[in-house]
Structures are given as structure tokens and as C-alpha cells.
Amino acid sequence: MKDPFSISKRASQRLPRRRFIQVVGAAACSLALPSTAHAATRRLAKPVRIGLIADLHHDVMHDAPARLDAFLEAMAADPPDAIVQLGDFAQAKQQNRPLVEQFRMAHPLALHVIGNHDTDGGVSFDQLLEEWQMKSRYYTRDVKGLRLIVLDGNERPPAHKSGYPSHIGAEQMEWLKKQLESHQGPMLVICHQPLAGPSCIDKAEQVQTILNTAADRIV
User: I want to staple 51 with a disulfide (CB 3.0 to 4.6 A). Which of 31, 80, 141, 163 is the partner?
Assistant: First the structure.
């Protein structure tokens, strides 16, 4: 059996670095889809393409503007149906408005997910929602037959003492249940914090139990 890493190495020599990363990333995502997810995608009339960027960390990473430029350049060259930043994007302060506006104006459907660092520096969730022009911390959006369910994993549990909370509270859990019960089409659940596996949110088993009620419809 051929070594897959040697194949990847040869491919990287033939492809420009950015294109190689895109190809390998797409292949990895495809291989990661379970059989239930493939069943959900078959309900779509056409493939849905979503551009994702995560952990820009504009306030602490010197190359954040350049990385956002590269992402938006790629999205403009081959436009997806929506773009989503997956959190830890930029704190809600006046000097970050041009960057947030750049992302918002790059696509008719530019969506935000709240990360744990987006409220650093004493920023409140209300301030963040206003700066990012979000109506709610968690919400749904429909993209060509695919419903995106965006969660907020930054809620503070009652017994929280220190550090960044990684938690979905009872009210949001109930909201999630209702979304899954009321929608019979394919859905994609998005959260900055992992919903399973290492470093997952608090009460991950409870979240997974809720998600399993709609396993045949979740991508």
C-alpha cells in the first residue's frame, strides 16, 4: 500500500501551496462525513458551498489582516453560497470596525460565530452584537436548502469560577431542541467550541443526545 503522506508530498510539489491546502482540506472534510451526514446531504437539490475562516485573532496576531485578505480574495475568485467566520475574530471596539465591515461587505451572506476571545477586554455580548450587527448570539440561517444552526458556546454556567466558559445553558439547549424538531430538512450545526471529543464544551453528552434526535438530518 502506498504511503499517503508521500502522495501528499508529491502533490504539494505540483500544486501552489494555497491550492494544495484547499484540496487537502476539502478531501479531509469529505472523508470525515459519517453515513448519516451523507444521507442528509442527499436531501439538497444542489451542493451548498460555504467558505469558512476561524481564529483570525485580529487583536493579537500581526498577520490577521493579511490572512483575512487572502481568504476573501479566494472567496471572490470562486464565490461560495455563504461565508462564515467561526469565532475569535476581532474584539468589539471602534478600531476594529473597518475589518469587521470588510468581512460583512465581502458576501451577501456573511455570518458570525462568537468565540471565547471576542469578548476580551471587558466587552459585553450586547456590545459585540451591536458591532457585528447580529440580532442574537445564537440563530439560524437558510442557505439554499441547508439550515445553519449557529450556537453560542460561551455562556457562563452557575458554578463558573474562572477562565473562559465553554457552556451552552438550559435556555439555549431548549431552543436547539425546538429548532431540530421544527425543521425536517438538512441542517448544519456550528459552534466555536467543540461539541464532542477533547476540549469539548460542558455537558457535551447532553448536547449530543439532543443532536442525535435529528441525526438523519444533520450534516
Answer: 80
